[in-house]
Amino acid sequence: MKKQLRLGLNAGFTFGIVTIFLFLIGFTGTSGDLLADLFSNKNAAPFFGLTPQMINMIIFLALVGLWAGSYGSRKSKGQTDDPWAPALIGGLTAGLVHGVLVGLLALLVGTLNLNNVPINMYLAAVLPAAIKMFLLGGSPVQGAIFHLILFTLTGFLGGLLSRGVARGSWRVRAEANWKNNWDGFNQKPFIKQVRGNPATRYVVYGVLLVLVFLVPLVAGQYWNYTIGTVCIYVLLGLGLNIVVGLAGLLDLGYVAFFAIGAYTMALLTAPAPQHLMWSFWIALPIGVVLAALTGLLLGAPVLRLRGDYLAIVTLGFGEIIRLLSTSDAMTSFSGGPKGVPSIAGPTIFGKPFNSGADFVYLIFLAAILIIFVTNRLQNSRVGRAWEAMREDETVSRAMGINTLTQKLLAFAIGAAFAGLGGALFASRNQFTGPEDFTFMVSVNVVAVVIVGGMGNIPGVIAGALVLKGLPEVLRELQDYRVMVFGALLVVMMLWRPAGIIPSSRRKMEVGTDAGVTETPKEGSEK
Amino acid sequence: MTIALETRSLTKLFGGLTAVDSVDLAIEEHAIFSVIGPNGAGKTTFYNCITGFYEPEAGDILFFGESLVGLSPDQVTYRGISRTYQNIRLFANMSAIENILVGEHSRIKGSWVEAILHTPRVVKEEKQAVEKARELLNFVGLVGLGDQLARNLPYGAQRRLEIARALGSQPRLLLLDEPTAGMNPHESTDMMHFIRRLRDELKITILLIEHDMRVVMGISERIAVLDYGAKIAEGTPAEIQGNPRVIEAYLGSGAASGLTNSASQPA
Among A486-495, A513-522, B30-39, B86-95, which is the least confidently predicted range? Predict the structure, then answer.
């Protein structure tokens, strides 16, 4: 009983602080607006003096309250007897503490607001309007009482609910059920036939290809732009995946190669500052090759370093390239801080294609090519050598691998992919400048690889979709993007440390079909 | 008999410390040859000199008449020397069969360009490599475990996998560094039989570092003893057991006279 009380108190305090934090950063108001946008008519008439935004905020807060209650009533260790009382006590305690904390907050900000203290000078999100909404238009005391009642009630309900679903055993049973059904489904002769048939794979690829072909036609300009960006990050992610995920060389200056690809495209095709105006198709391979060569040049002296030292040196190299591009000395050569405008787009038989959809096809094509190449490399002698180096560099040398050559190769191929991405990026935007190549780009690409799943192609694609695609979908939440990002990373590292789609190994002992085994979750560390 | 490996006054210095002190050794082809010595005697340093991880300060290493001094580890492996480690060092997050395939690295040729293009040659080569890896898996008795991650294998299996990986490079000389470390008497007996099989069936030469005297005396044809980097004795197991300098090195001065008789029975 005492234990349950403590669990409830803990949950109440935790959720109380979370709710206060959400209010202070203005998220309670935003949540109301967002839900009102999504699910109801924003401009509906007030209902008992409550605007739709307020009602939706209450719904959001009620959900938080339910969560607090169910969290506070979860089973304490070793508890067996009478499950109902502890659940209700836990839920009620959590709800009360939650309510008291938030109520005090409402009282405090309400009173300050009544006395015209400009809170938003210190906390930008706490505007008088936000406070009014939080108090549902009433006095501070009314607001405080409302929050107290709301959270106590929802906490209690949360406790009831968590009891109702038998505290997780329901979930365990459902999962087991689902797995049984799935295994049964896989055992059916027809399904086995379909799965074992190589033709199935081609059909799936075909369907995907058709989808890929259709999407840019349906999507509007904005979405085509977003899809293009995501695909360019897939290119960058796959390139860095070779360097970091396979060869195990932590490169924090990857943006440098991206910049070299982009600037090559820019300087060769734009009318100023170089007056060359070459064709896109000539500039593209030059950009790729130049990036790869830079990779070799940088790699030759630097790749003797291991681990952290390599990370620092590459980080420095990335910054050097960016600073060079902003410096006055380079203005006449590469446009300096102003960047390079009017970069050419590709043409086919004289027909330019600057429209969004055409370019998306081109980027798709590049992505498919890179996926193909990565896949072939990964499952080859070279790919195995890279992975062996990642696992244990010393031993891999004893196994006859020339580690310097293999590292250089990984670095150059990774750089070439980035160069391709950069060239396409510059050409699509028809403009490039130093601000496209900040350190944050390197960080983002590393995050794509790590969040998606190191050393794994579907993982990198998933990573790019989540990290570059989701923020576009969640435009409304853009003030909270970094926060969500941070929370996501913490959650990922706790629950899926090997990434969204952890790398899997080909089965090779029996037969040569492409069955795979999933590595256990802790697979990211050696 | 041909000499597989010969060292001529091999010397390795670490600052003021002489880790290997002008060691002369000659190992006949198809022999099982052991190097023993107290902890810190320089045995592992000796291995690292042979495999190219350390460059010796003086002396020469001849492998079937060809000098190995100055070669990098991968070049040494390419010439036919392979090794295992005292503390198991597998590629933990790769499957067992992939570990062996990495071992075969120096015997297959496919470049990155061929890998991308999947040229018929590289496809065939890859198929043969996998086939060979399956054979080795079978040879070391790990059939059915090939698709397991190396780190999920039990200890004994990891030891065997490490040997299979070393065999992947088709060595003519195999250096084993304490292959029975951490094994119980039954397991180490198995390992002894296995080492003999390696030599008899694959016709390779085996150089062994080992602390377990039962194993050393049981399978070695010749033994060299290192102490403070220098070779203090060499001979057949029986000769070594009776050698007072060896007993002194292991048990301290003065022990030799009292222990000569009892030490002749292997523990």
Answer: A513-522
Gap between the Cα atoms of A430 and A422, Å rounded = 12
Provide DSSP, A287-342: HHHHHHHHHHHHHHHHTTS-HHHHHHHHHHHHHHHHHHHHSGGGHHHH-GGG-B--
Rounded to a whole number of angstroms, the distance from the CA of B53 to the nearest CA of chain A is 8
Sort out which chain A residues have CB atoms less than 8 A from B73's CB and list them. Answer: 397-398, 400
With a CB cutoff of 8 Å and minimum separation 6, the contacts of A445 are A233, A236, A237, A240, A254, A255
Cβ–Cβ below 8 Å for A384 and B111: no
Residue percentage of chain B with pLDDT more than 70: 94
- Cα(B35)–Cα(B223) distance, rounded to whole angstroms? 6
Q: Where are the domains of chain A?
A: 2-174, 219-437
For B181-188, what is the mean pLDDT? 90
What's this model's pTM, rounded to 2 decimal places? 0.79
Average pLDDT over residues B126-137: 95
Among candidates A376, A392, A510 on the partner chain, residue whose Cβ is nearest the Cβ of B118:
A376
User: Which A residues in the span 342-381 are in contact with B, Cβ-Cβ below 8 Å?
Assistant: 373, 376-377, 380-381
- ipTM here: 0.91
| Sign of the torsion formed by the C-alpha atoms of B87, B91, B94 and B99 | negative
Residues of chain B with CATH 3.40.50.300: 1-80+171-267
| A396 interaction partners in chain B (CB closer than 8 Å) | 91, 102
% of chain B beyond a pLDDT of 90: 82
B140 band by pLDDT with thresholds 50, 70 and 90? very high
Nearest to B146 among A373, A400, A508 (CB): A508
Q: Is the pLDDT of residue B136 over 60?
A: yes
Predicted pLDDT at A249:
92
What value does the mean pLDDT of chain A take?
84
Question: B223 vs chain A: nearest CA distance in angstroms?
Answer: 25
Can you tell me the distance from the alpha carbon of A324 to that of A310, in angstroms, rounded to the nearest whole number? 21
Number of helical (H) and strand (E) elements in chain A, helices listed first: 22, 4
The answer on pLDDT for B259 being more than 70 is no
Residue of B nearest to A406 (CA): B112
Nearest Cα of chain B lies from the Cα of A36 at a distance, in angstroms, of 49
* DSSP structural state of residue A47: B
Q: Are strands B66-67 and B58-63 parallel, antiparallel or unpaired?
A: antiparallel
Q: How far is A511 from chain B (nearest CA, A)?
A: 10
Q: Which of B47, B51, B102, B151 should we substitute to test contact with A (largest number of A Cβ atoms within 10 Å)?
A: B102
Give the CATH number of domain B1-80+171-267: 3.40.50.300
pLDDT score of B87 more than 70: yes
**Closest residue on chain B to A517 (Cα):** B147
Nearest CA in chain A to B75: A400
